[in-house]
Amino acid sequence: MAEEDDFWKAEWVEVERKIAEGESKPFSVALAEEKLNRLILSEGESSNTAADKQENQTNVNLKTSDDVAFEVKAWIAKEMETVQSFIDTSGDSTVVIPLPNVTSRELRHILKYCEEHRRIGDDKKALKEFDDNFMKALSPDEMKELLFAANYLNMKEFLDFLCGGIAQMLENKSVEFARDFFGIENDFTPEEEASYREANAWAFENIDDSS
Description:
By secondary structure, this protein is mostly helical. It contains ten helices and three strands.
């Protein structure tokens, strides 16, 4: 099929060349034109068929740590590498897949993010507006829990998005706020910390006093 298509494409190039040089239009012009049009239509149909096939794939059944069942679209499940790995290993996409490290609240946020990004498509302005509103609606605790959930599910794009949002949220926050957010224990003595703050005073300028 590919060789035949290449032949007709080459034939059409030759026809165009002859017409441009003023030669009489050969009989094969109509045939080549028809074949080329059929090829273009066929490629378009194949593309649509692939998209339809992706939409019509069997949904994936997930159960969160708080025992809530979800029926998730296959294309979203593919973005969750942990889930997809389970399906690939078991060879069965109809079983209920447990998510011991993801709650129903977190999964709802994840599904909303994926579905809205797919709906919006390549509209960068609309995507940025959605992303900004998505992060603004989350509390620091929700951001942290979503980060852990995305890491467990191995959702690279969503994980990168959350890391960027959290980094922006932590900008100008106090050291104490960051320690509390990540659950980091302060292993400096009061004297060591005071010395470090004095030596790096610039790093503690313009700190958000409310944090």
